[in-house]
Amino acid sequence: MDGAASLGVVIDVAQAEQMQRHALALLQWNRRTNLTAVTAPKDVAVKHYVDSLAPLPFIPVRGRLLDVGSGGGFPGLPLKIARSRLEVTLLDAARKKITFLKHAIHSLALDRITAHQARLEALAGSGGVERFDMIVSRAFGRLDALVAACLPLLATGGRMLLLMGPQIDAEVAQLETARTGKGVHLAGRDLKLKVVAYRLPELDAARRLVILQP
Question: Which domain holds residue 82?
């Protein structure tokens, strides 16, 4: 709770207890199937949960949220716990991770949240897929490729919230030189770009929240 508060995020005791239950299940399952390389208690608390809550000030009470590459449930599951009225889809290509996520959803008695096994590109390319108001990810790979894959799944007026390390600064600096009157031109679209720099408490690790909106 104190770690979240350092980022301006408030969670209550019940929400903190739910996250703790998820963490215990994550570490138990991790003994037999590789879900996370982060296992030290302080690192789990800060790198997984506190970091996952960084986008919360930019996420409304209601809406449809897609977590891309959810893995053990980050950042989507902590965001769902903190914003119970969200409709959340956790997406991952690994079956073992989806199996765990379904177990976690059931054990925490969460509603309006599902875990779906698929690659992002396959989901975006399939017909009749619901569009999302928010797409979140602890981002991997190049920003332009991730944005290109996410855009077909983004609803009108929606936004992408991507958790990244400080190495993204160089890519953002290159994008700054390509600014147009409407913002940054990326993946064939003019997008608004905002980068929020923050540091994880206790570990003093630099992080970035990249917010993109058509």
Answer: 2-162
